[in-house]
Amino acid sequence: VTREIQEGFYGRALDPARPGDPKDQEGFVYPPYIAFFLAPTLHLPFAMVRKASFWVLLGLTIATVPLWLRVLRWPVPGWALASVVILTIGSLPVMQGLKLQQMTLLVVPLIAAALALLVSHRPVAAGIALALATIKPQLVWLLLLSLTIWTLADWRRRYRWAASFLLTMAVLFAASEWYLPHWIPRFLQAVHEYRNYTAAASILGQMVPAPWGWMLWILTAAATVQVCWKNRKFAEETPAFAATVSLVLAVTVILTVVSSYALYNQIMLFPAVLMLVRERHQIWGRNRMSRVLLSLAAILLLWPWLTNIVLAGLSYVLPVALVVRAWAVPFWTVLPLPLVVAALVLIRSYHRPFAAHPEPGTS
Amino acid sequence: MRLDIVHKPLWLVLAAVLGASSVWLYAERMVSYQIAGSVRGNCCFTAATPTVPP
Asked: For B23, which of A79, A83, A95 is closest by C-beta distance?
């Protein structure tokens, strides 16, 4: 399969004997059950599948906006919803995801749908959607850990999503084993090789040199798990639950090992950013540190749009060959942004006390 | 009816349209310009590269 991908991507299979060949093997690093998603397109013309998948992924991305607002229980007026949708599809991560037709644009809507279903008290459907989202396990591992902590805190009321998740996973694993026997060790081997040939690292690892990067990685993971533990008794419709899953998804972005150009994963910051926008006045009024971080987050978030307006405008006035020299400027903030957003949401989780009665009478 | 020039929602929607369209214009004009410089954009081989090792 890897050879076929290389022939499609590079024009021929890579040759280890050639020192000039690229290091990135473009290997197939997905669980085999992703094939079940793609199977209906197998006999269709590639050009048609390419065009259709662009529109499908665009539609799914647009659909995530009301889903996240539902998770956060934030009803917004139509003009605000329109603005958020426009800014979402006009953001660098979504643009990159659409250009690459990246599976993250399928996985994140599945996560959003799963959480929206969970807060709407449809746990069985939520479990199925979350199981389907494991086609990219690196995007859901921390969410699954946090939901496990949350579920074990009140097993009798919350087991339904976990049961449907485990049942769906069992079906997917069994079907994969039938389709590709002994796939699990082969998948783990492919993941191991991927980390070597792409020099992949977490955003924390890319921003903070070792050994500080690793220490900060462990500290961030521990602090996030501690917040999950602290909020474990809050029901799925409470603000504490929404804040916890938003934190978990933002932290996933900075902890997960990805190749350096995988900007599209930052779509998972979306609920955390929405939450910061909603609570900007409280955060601003807390202390000086919060004001500095909030200002920094706003600058880092707005930077790509501001610089793109300038660059796109200049490309009509000056020769494109000249303007293109500054092509990387909009990307200057893409690594620090997730760190600042995750830090703000983490600090918020420690500062903000939630109601004393976490569980309502029924759910 | 007077047009309200400080109508906040309208300005926010317009700002969103401006920002979003600039990202797509940037992608179409600059990234496409760079990709045009190579055969496949992501890489490195010319069409004449032999498919078997020398």
From this structure: A95
pLDDT tens string A49-96: 999 999 999 999 999 999 999 999 999 999 999 999 999 999 999 998
Q: Do residue A327 and residue B51 have CB atoms under 8 angstroms apart?
A: no
Q: Does A54 touch chain B (CB under 8 A)?
A: no
Query: Which residues lie closer than 8 Å to A125 by C-beta, 6 or more apart?
Result: A117, A164
Q: Angle at CA A337, nearest 5°, toward B32 and A103?
A: 55
ipTM, 2 decimals? 0.76
Answer whether A37's CB lies under 8 Å from A135's CB: yes
Q: Give the pLDDT confidence of A275-313 residue by residue, as tens digits.
A: 999 999 999 988 898 899 999 999 999 999 999 999 988
Question: What pTM did the predictor assign?
Answer: 0.88
Report the candidate in A74, A75, A105, A76 with the shortest Cα–Cα distance to residue A89: A105
B13 chain-A contacts, CB cut-off 8 A:
79, 82-83, 86
Tracing tokens 């150009």 back to the chain, one arrives at: A261
Chain B closest CA to A240's CA: distance in Å? Answer: 29
Tell me the C-alpha distance between A253 and A102, whole Å: 16
Distance CA A200, CA A217 (A): 15
Q: CA-to-CA distance for A299 and B12, rounded, in angstroms?
A: 17
DSSP B28: I
For A242, residues 6+ apart whose C-beta sits below 8 A from its C-beta are A71, A72, A73, A119, A271, A275
B2 and A CB contact within 8 Å: no
The residues pairing with A258 across neighbouring beta strands, listed in sequence order, are A201
